[in-house]
Amino acid sequence: MARPREFDEAAALEAAVHCFWLRGYEATSVRDLAESMGITGASLYNAFGDKRSLFRRALAHYVEHSFGAREARFETTLPPRDALHAFFREIVERSVADDERKGCLLVNSALEVAPHDPEFQQAIAAVLVRVEAFFRRCVSAGQQRGEISRTQTAEDLARTLLGTLLGLRVLARSRPERELLEGLVRPILALLDRDLALERG
Asked: Which Pfam families match (predicted)?
């Protein structure tokens, strides 16, 4: 009969996320992970597998509890244009408040791991496709409602918003300055309103 787990697996996974997020994949050792998770190396392997398997779970957990939660919250409670503005406003706030300058685990992994690891490259690319699809749905719905400009296609605006998000998260790791980050986002979001009065007229 298997012995019951003697630790909180959800809390341990959260600790692993923070460890990878703070140090990066390569610089994080199994010992680092076990210490941060408050468990032994043997318990780590029994519950989560090797470091690679744990990173896979940690990244998926991070995506669902950061982007996934934000996607559901904004898309279901706000008009499309407001959802996009709120999304970027929250990202700026999180970036400015991040005293550890961790940035975004997904973006960090895209830069560190994806270029030389086909499996993680595909996993990270799939999440970025999902983020782009969220932006595209918001833009398309906003254009249909007449609250977002049709000067650019929903596809191009979604790609522009995706690039802005990635650039913002990278920039914030070294310069988490509110004025800088808001100045990056402001003209991009203004594209949503460009020529809207003329289109309505």
From this structure: TetR_C_13, TetR_N
Residue 38 lies in a domain: no
Instruction: List, for residues 43-63, the tens digit of each pLDDT value.
Output: 999 999 999 999 999 999 999
Q: Is residue 161 part of a domain?
A: yes
Euclidean distance between CA atoms 179 and 100, whole angstroms = 19
Torsion angle (degrees, nearest 10) of CA 60, 111, 163, 81: 30
What is the dihedral sign for C-alpha 16, 20, 22, 28? Answer: positive
State how far the Cα of 175 lies from the Cα of 169, in Å rounded to an integer. 10
How does pLDDT run across 130-179, given as a tens digit for each residue? 999 999 999 999 999 999 999 999 999 999 999 999 999 999 999 999 99
Quote the pTM value. 0.90
Residues in the chain: 201
Q: How many domains does the chain have?
A: 1
